Structure formats: C-alpha cells, structure tokens
Amino acid sequence: SQTIHQWPATLVQPVGSPLSLECTVEGTSNPNLYWYRQAAGRGLQLLFYSVGIGQISSEVPQNLSASRPQDRQFILSSKKLLLSDSGFYLCAWSVRGTGPYGYTFGSGTRLTVV
Amino acid sequence: AQKVTQAQTEISVVEKEDVTLDCVYETRDTTYYLFWYKQPPSGELVFLIRRNSFDEQNEISGRYSWNFQKSTSSFNFTITASQVVDSAVYFCALSEGKGGGNKLTFGTGTQLKVEL
Fold first, then answer.
1. Other Cβ atoms within 10 Å of A2 Cβ, number
2. CA end-to-end span of chain A, whole Å?
3. pLDDT one-digit tens code per residue, A18-72
4. DSSP bridge pairs for A114
5. Which regions of chain B are under pLDDT 70?
6. Cα–Cα distances in Å, from B80 out to B10, B11, B17, B21?
7. CA–CA dist A87, A12 (Å, integer)
8. Exposed, middle or buried: residue A56 (CB in 10 Å: 0-12, 13-18, 19+)?
9. What's the 3-state SS for chain B?
10. At CA A82, angle to CA A38 and CA A94, rounded to 5?
11. B97 CA: distance to closest CA in chain A (Å)
C-alpha cells in the first residue's frame, strides 16, 4: 500500500533561519507531488507541484523553493524564513495519468516562525 | 480560472441532527472533477469522495451523501444523524480535466461542530 511521510510534525524557527521540510512517498512510482500551505484562515494554498524528478512548478512567488531530487522525495526549503512563512504545510501525492485523482496528504508540519 | 466557494464558515449542530455543507464551483471546462476532504483536529486531510463532471448521480456512503447538480454548479455534502466524531473542517475542491499536474483548487472550508 502507498504511504506518505512528512517531517517534522512541528517546528519553531527564528526569523532569518533556513528551512528544510521533507516528504517521501512509498509504494508507488512516478507520483505527482505537491506542497500546500494552510494559513490561519484555513484555506489551502498550492505552493509547488512536481510531475517528475527535477520538474518543479511554482504557483505563488514567495520566499520558498522546492526540489525533487528523487522520484518519491519532495523537499520544501527557504534560505531565510519570514514571519509570514508561519503556517501548516502539507505534502500530498496523486497518481500520474489520465484524469485527476484525489490527493493523499501527509500529516503536515506546523511551522511557527518567531 | 476555477474557483470553489464554501459560503458557510462555521456550522454548529446537536448530535443526531442532519447537516448539509454547501459547495459552489466555477470552471470553464466541460470536464472536471470535484472532491470533498475532511480535516479533523489532528490536521491531516482525509479524502472522502471524487466525482467527475459527467456523472451527476447522487452518492450515498453510510451517513454521508453527496448531491451534484451541474445546473447550479453545486456539489453539496450531507451528513445524516451527525455524531461528535464528525466535528472537523470540510473542504470542497475542484480539478480541471486536463494535464498539468492535476492541481486541486480548494474552497476555504466549513468548520462543523457537533455537540452533545
């Protein structure tokens, strides 16, 4: 069965510090991968998605970047965190192929920038 | 551009009441997919249902039912005989039927509180 792992679960970082959040998927190949952020207002905002190794599409210009060094690994990074980067970050994967399928989400990382 | 509207920010009901969560969407595509997700207090989003634009049949799964009406661009979700465990934020989402990564556009969510 497919599983998605996301860590850490919670993180408190000072302003200006770097960030690295990791997400890995098991039990599937060639997945589409996504990073979403959920701010205090509950809405889910798509940050990045990837349809293959090294292929990253950015949806929102911001202080963050994403990388996909391996087929089932997706990393969210920042060189210098801002207060506005605080939020709940969710990684997700979906089957690549004909027609959209539902996402499977990771358990999320709650980031607080202080 | 596609858009999903969940006008109900928060709903409170007493256990065993029926409750309907509204979802209205906008898209220019004739082929698209609609989803509902549940987010319990733990934060993880749980997939509930996917419906494509060519299938307007209503669906029932236990206490959950979904009413898809293309004429009004709505995909409403009803919980029958609500329980405390149904308390969560519920998200409606839309994906167009093209390639480009299967991106989902989410509504802002409806917080459902079921009280004893």
1. 12
2. 38
3. 999 999 999 988 999 999 999 876 688 889 999 899 999 988 867 899 999 999 9
4. none
5. 97-101
6. 17, 14, 7, 11
7. 11
8. middle
9. CCEEECCCCEEEEECCCCEEECCEEECCCCCEEEEEEEECCCCCCEEEEEEECCCCCCEEECCEEEEEEHHHCEEEEEECCCCHHHCEEEEEEEEECCCCCCCCEECCCEEEEEEC
10. 35
11. 6
Of B43, B97, B109, the CB nearest to A107: B43
Tokens of A22: 């990791």
Strand partners, A12: A112
Query: Residue B29: its pLDDT value, please?
Result: 86
Among candidates A57, A100, A103 on the partner chain, residue whose Cβ is nearest the Cβ of B97: A100
Q: pLDDT tens digits for A78-113? A: 999 999 999 999 999 988 764 556 788 999 999 999
Q: Do B35 and A102 touch (CB under 8 A)?
A: yes
pLDDT by residue (tens digit) across B78-99? 999 999 999 999 999 998 766 5
In Å, how far is A104's CA from the nearest CA of chain B? 7
Match 């589409």 to its residue by tokens.
A32
Among candidates A94, A105, A108 on the partner chain, residue whose Cβ is nearest the Cβ of B102:
A94
